[in-house]
Amino acid sequence: MVTTSSGEISRRKFLAAGGITAATAFLAPTALFAQSDDVLVPGALKEAATAKVTVQALRRNISVLLGAGGNIAVLSGADGKLLVDAEIVTAREKVSAALASINSDPITQLINTHWHFDHTGGNEWLHDAGANILAQENTRTHLLKVTRVEGWNHTFPASPSGAIPSTVFKEDHTLHANRTTLILKHYSPAHTDSDISVHFVEADVFHTGDTFWNGYYPFIDYSTGGSIDGMIRATEANLGKVTDNMIVIPGHGPVGDKSRLAFYRDLLVGTREKVADLKKQGKNLEEIVAAKPTAATNAEWGSGFRSPKDFIGDVFQGV
Ligand SMILES: [Zn+2]
After folding, report:
1. How far is the CA of 210 from the centre of ligand 1 (A)?
2. Contact indicator for 123, 163 with CB cutoff of 8 Å
3. Distance from the alpha carbon of residue 29 to the mean position of ligand 1, in angstroms
């Protein structure tokens, strides 16, 4: 399995950014306290401007772009390039260069797996470059208005009109492009309420959006419909779909397969059980974090977007 370190949004850098803010906190402690928590999104915007974006050829005419934000699937051919997801807005230059390195096909279509900024940030410039944007209807709803994500301590403004999907669907949508059938399916609320999977049928390549994070603890966005139980349901749905030969593109992390999906399911289910059990015993979040319910996987999974403590907090909230 190909691995990449370029996809890591450095938690150390986020912490460093928070540290700088904290160092100035003596000026106005109360006002700056709330601000100092809003480091993840600004940190990601900064990181994506310089993070490497690598291209990995998968199967047939499909490649994946791995960078600081969400993984982008690219289907090329006579109909022009079709992209699944649009990265963080500041990654534009790196994404443009990576797309140009595949071939000179124009960009004609974009599908968003969900509404988050690290998957829709490039919507506006990709639309300007010629892409029609397609998504589940809740992606459009969230992008149209000011949306607060408590888990990131960040409030997103409404997106500019060029970034808004022009075609939306509710549950399922099938399209044909570049001699490929794409089946889009809405998950019941999982990571958000807008998550979809994209199956490139002939190539048997499956993009899970952020229902699957490969090698990083996932973020669960309770503010827009996500939950740990929803994440587990979505993962069971992914496992019900996966074949032995399927190439699985996660929302974040290196390209995976059936065995990685199964490991991830066990991780989610096991953590949920342990955290629920400790919570039932009357332990608070600090005590549960101190009990290290994810000790076995922290070295591999805990150094990305979400620390072990963040992940345990996300699980705690939903049990
Ligand atoms: Zn997301």
Report:
1. 5
2. yes
3. 31
Give every CB contact of residue 28 below 8 A, 6+ residues apart in sequence.
none
Between CA 266 and CA 256 the distance in angstroms is 15
CA of 270 to the centre of ligand 1 (A): 22
Query: What pLDDT is stored for residue 24 in this prediction?
Result: 36
Q: In angstroms, what is the span from residue 62 Cα to ligand 1's centroid?
A: 22
CA of 116 to the centre of ligand 1 (A): 5
Tell me, in angstroms, the distance from the centre of ligand 1 to residue 24's CA: 31
Is residue 249 within 8 Å of 211, Cβ to Cβ?
Answer: no
CA of 129 to the centre of ligand 1 (A): 24
Q: Which two tokens mark 121?
A: 């940030």
Burial class (CB in 10 A: 0-12, 13-18, 19+), 84: buried
**What is residue 149's three-state secondary structure?**
strand
Reported as type and span, the H/E element at residue 298 is helix 298-301
Burial of 125 per CB tally in 10 Å (0-12, 13-18, 19+): middle
HSE (CB half, 13 Å, CA atoms) of 302? 14
Give pLDDT tens digits for 41-52: 999 999 999 999
Residue 282 region by backbone torsions, left for phi larger than 0, else alpha for psi between -120 and 50, else beta: left
Per residue in 188-210, pLDDT (tens digit) is: 999 999 999 999 999 999 999 99
Distance 213 CA to ligand 1 centre (A): 10
User: Rounded to the nearest whole angstrom, what is the distance from the C-alpha of residue 118 to the centroid of ligand 1?
Assistant: 7
* Distance of alpha carbon 253 from the chain centroid: 9
Q: How far is the CA of 191 from the centre of ligand 1 (A)?
A: 7
Helix (H) / strand (E) element for 109: namely strand 107-111
Which residues are CB-neighbours of 157 under 8 A, at least 6 positions away?
Answer: 146
Count of CB atoms situated within 10 Å of the CB of 96: 16
| Region 112-138 average pLDDT | 98
